Amino acid sequence: MGVDCVAAINGKKPFDLVIEHVNVVNVFTEQVAEGSVAICGDTIAYVGEMDFPYTTKQVIDGKGRYAIPGLIDAHMHFESSMMTPAHFIETILACGTTTVAADPHEIGNVFGLEGIEALTRAALGSPLHVLMMAPSTIPSAPGLERAGFSMEAPQMEKALDIPGVKGLGEVMDFNGVADGDERILAVVETARKRGVLMDCHVPALTGRRLQAFRSTGLDTDHTDMSLPRLKEKLSAGFSVQVQRSFFSAETMEYLNHFPLQDRIMLITDDVPFIDLVKEGHLNANLRRAIALGLEPVRAVRFATINAANRLRLYDRGAVSPGYKADVLLVDSLEECAPSLVLVDGKTVAENGKCLVSVEPKPFPEHFYHSIHVLPLEEADFALPGAEGTKALCNVLGGNTKVTRTTKTQQWIPIRDGRLDTSGFIKLAVIYRHGYGPEKTPGKEVSLALLSGFPAFRGALATTYAHDSHNLMVFGGNDSDMAVAANRLIELGGGLCAVLDGKVVSEVSLPVAGLLTGESVDVLTRSFEDFFQAVRTLRLDHANPMMFLTLMSLAVSPEIKCTDLGLVDVLEKKFIPLIVSTE
Question: At 44, is the secondary structure helix, strand, or coil?
């Protein structure tokens, strides 16, 4: 294509497209200049004032809009949208995301290498540029939870051979790495020897232990980006991928002035479905970051060329000669709402609508039968009996703003030999992956208590539950918990809300208990109905979807409940529900 570009610039053949009258954002100089963008095939040939003779097959009048590179999301998960790839890709293309590095960690926890390969196959072949990252830490906290698969070094070798897989997904067993655990270090070493990209997840390490982690060659993080942690990670040579939950005016001010600007990226990580359709994808994060004070051109840089260089995509991420023609036209950098999206020089979206249809690719039949749990009864959710008048209990301390849970101890009255859990949410995690090669169903129920939501009633259940995606139930009473759990067993996975013994809302996620092939319109109605039910059940949280799906994540501080019990995440050990009684 370079030969064609030279020929077109020299007037020996026409450009395929010239976008005139645009303000071009230069991510190298962080300047904006008026001019045109000339394209040959899939490549940008010329940028600037075209004060020389030329011909072109097509002209687009930019009308003074900004021309910026297609947005590149350096760390994300397809499954967080709960859509199968075809509809998800159409949705984010319309938002201006043209390249992603995706970690199929969720489906890998359910179906292992087969799941990674199936999701990769379903995501490739569309206009969206997709780099898959082989999930590194399945389960995320070995010994503290069970998933449907276990990723060891030999399995990582096979995962890295899957066509479309380009690197190592986020290493979540940060304690294991810092402690020198042989299992996770062998997985990391497998990837390091291949020379592939390696992603990380380091929310709780600092000082000596953070440097031990970094010494393995793991060099990026997207988790705790509170300002002190952000500064320490940048100082230790990490590249930082800042997700929206850590945006603040203070952080944006610091990023504006950090001396090495190429170490910083904006990413999505997880975008729940309703947030995606109502606010957008990576463009919504740019909009929020700019509103908090990040300089607009710098925000564009953090979501384009920095991400491209991190992903070794040295021909993407800039509106400059020789770069691939992934270009957005936006009326305002602050709003970052693309009115035109080009991928490889072709128009794929306009005015918020995707113009290309991505063909859905089928998943294996057994992916629709992944909830291997026997029917549950009210008695399965009963807490163990206790003697005395009160019990000191370890409790997940929650609140309405964040998903982090604090390790708290509370005295709870004992009445008639049972804990009086009124004012608490009872949390149940049920192993759902089956036993042995035949996936024989069972019913192992692990129980915990969650504070911070005293008005909660009824029950909510989900099979999308980070990271092992066991069946998780939140209950105000045992009867509704059983109804909710059994409904998801019938559906083959999803989310549901139950009140007074009746299912009041449900979202079916039949593919691995994680995804649905329903259209955006159908799924929007389902989720709006579900969130109305969440409000009816009085789970008052700023981000209920993230909250519901993270209470079993055994690498998310400080305390969580897995299918094996109550986990002190920072100490990486099980703790009892009842500490003592009086």
Answer: strand
